[in-house]
Structures are given as C-alpha cells and as structure tokens.
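Encode chain A's predicted structure.
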Amino acid sequence: MTRFARLGRSYLAATRRELIRDRDQVVQAAERAGRAAFTDGEERRFRELTDEIRGIDTTLTDLDAEPARVQVLSEPRTYQPDGPWSFFGDVAAAKVGQDPDAIGRLARHRREAEVELTRREAHARAHYDDGLEDATREVRALTADDGTSGADFAPPMWITEAYAERVRAGRSFSRQVNQRPLPIGTSTIKVPVVDDGFAAGGTGPDTPPANVDLEDRLLTIPVRQIAAQVDVAHKVLDLNLVDDRLIAEDLGSAYDNELGRQVLVGSGSGREVRGLLNVDGATDITFTDADPDFAALHAKIGEAATAVVTRRQQRPRALLLHGRRFYWATSQTDDDGRPLLPSADPDAMGDTDGGPVARWHRMPTWTDQHMPTGDGAADNQDVIALTRPGDHWLWESPWRLEVDVVTRGRALEVVFTLHAYLAFTAERYPSATALIRGTGLIPTLWTPEV
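Encoded structure for chain A:
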C-alpha cells in the first residue's frame, strides 16, 4: 500500500487532477520555448509528477480490489456515452503511446467488465437448459476457434447494451429465434433431434406409453467465431475527432450482417454454422412456371405452409423472402387496382427496420437481404422459406475487442477487431421448415441489373 492509502477517494481524485495539470504545464513550457526535448530540470520534474500520479493510481487500484468490490457497479462506469473519455481513443493511446492515464482507465474498465461478465456467465449457466432440457455441452481447453480466449478488451457495457436494444436489420431472422448466452468455454453443444414431433397416446396396464428415443439422435453443434474489423487513423483517435458511437456502429453492423447471413445460408462447414436453408430434412417445394403470376406464387406458399402443418403438426410462424420478391408481390393489383398483398400497417404490426413487412397466409412476413437470388441452373432464382423460429436456437458469447497498430504508407492506423462466438441450429425440428425453389422465382420485371 502506498503513502496515499489513508487518504479519501475524492481527495485522491482531486490531487491527481492537479498533478496532471502541473505535468501538462511542464510540457507546455518546453513547447513555448520551441524546444523538442526537456531540460534536465524539466525532465526531473516531469518524472516526479508522473511517479506521484502512478502512486495515486496504484492506491485507487488497491481500493477497487478490496472486498467491497460491488462498489464498481454502484459508481459511474469509466466509459459512458456522454462521458469525458473515449474508449477507442484510450485503447489507441495505450497501444501506441503507452499513455499511463489511458492504461489506468482501461484497467478500471477491465475490472468493471470482469464483474459484469461473471454475472452474465452465472446467468447463462443458470438458464442453459431453459426450454431445451436435453441439451448438453462439451468443454475443453480454449483455442482460437472454440471459446472466448485471446481478446484484449470487452467493449464498454453501454455499447453492447445500447446496440442490443436497437432493431438490428442485418439479422432480421436471427432475432426471432430462441437466443441464449453461450457459456464461456463451450466448444460444442449437443441437442436431441426430432424429425416429426413427439409421440403420445393413451396408456393402460398392458399398453406402454408411446416413446421417441432421443438419446440415440443427438445433434452436435460446433461453436464458430465471427469477427468484424474497422481501421481508424491514429490521428483521428488521438485528437478525439470521432464519436465512439460511430466506431461501435460500424463494427456492430458488420458483425450482425455476417451473423444474419450465416444463420440463413451458412454452409455448416469450415468456419460457418449451418444455416436454415441448408438443413437436411426440410420440405422442398418446387415452383415450376415460365410466366409466374401472383396467384401461382400465393398457391405455392399455401402448399409450403400445408407441408409444415402436416409434418410438424403446428403452423409456420414466419415467411422469409428477398425484398425484390416482396415488393414485386405488393405491386400486383386486382382488376380494380387494389393491391393483392397489402403492406403491413406499421401501427398494427409494429413495423420497423428489420421487422415484419406484411402478413401472407396470416403469417408474419420478413424480407431479408441474405435470402438467395442466385439459385437454380441459371443462378437467377429466389428462394422462399417458411419456418417456425421458435424451433431454432442461437447461442452467442459476449463481444470482445482486439486491437492492432499498422503502418500504411506514412500513416499510422489502429485496427479494431470485434469478435464473438456462436452456435446455431435449425436441425432439431427439420420438419418445421419448407423451402420454395424453382423457375417460378425467376427475376421480376423490376429486378435491376447488377
């Protein structure tokens, strides 16, 4: 414990501000004199003030580490939306210039994040089996591909909380499925597969109950990683010329866009999860029509819905199609000029960016830019999916942030990489999904050249 240990926190903070002000004055004096280096006296004074500041920082760190650690949560967080410090700016300052003040703030933030992530991990473990009682998981030593190791920083809580509350258009389908935190250290998740529903029936003294043996039909779901990256000029961060919200928006949007793509069309091989459209056992509906109209498409969607009801024994809850197909459908009119498929009433549907755009066969209908438009022999057909999002599961870990510094030409750039781990399955109930494909989904007259 340093000699500052007996002093109060508020006094320490005030003293620290005065010491920083005095140290800045030493630097300013050298700059006013036009000198590129300190005199011996200035160098000695600068070092003395820096040692005093570090001594106070050490004491504050010790106070934070004492048993009353919960105080971290009751005090203002180090990085806040309208606070005086930029998280991304401090990361760059610590990485490039080893700035002691930035390092101190990041150390405090790391402690705050540890407390919060520990709480969230406990919540994840407590709710791991919530709604999926037969799920199991495997844990092993973490590598770069299967856990949450290797990251330098957890982004500030206000970034993840504020971004989570927004409707994220890059993942209009994935936000509908069951979502759970991914417990730290998980490498695979195993869940039972049910092709056509559970069995049930009357029982009696000589009649055993119907049974579906799940133990022999376990689906192994691997954990994958998604990363998003943005480069920012060091000068921009050093001069505090960019709001943290803008960097967080770019990183979060890129991450969500890739997650949304994989959950729909991921191949299931390499580093991708297996997406909804690549599920084995889904019902395939072929739509063959050289000159398709709205009535033919409407009938095929009804056929696909019937297939889900018949096999899954429950009706589909979501219709997914590309925007170009949806807006073609809403442009079709009857003989009196009335739309055959009215768009959603925003007040009735709660329509927002990424939300449902209509009801088709009484199903909430979503457009998603990740739905294929290059299917078929000529690589020019759409795909339409009907499914039950509540039958599918998505696990995600908290976001982590890695930082690197690179030189491009004469410019110094800071590379921020946001990454997280996830597992997804739509294969537990393959009967819950029907996919419409065929020549009846060729480009419409409105399809632009790209």
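Residues 1-7, 67-74, 139-151, 347-352 have pLDDT under 50 and may be disordered.
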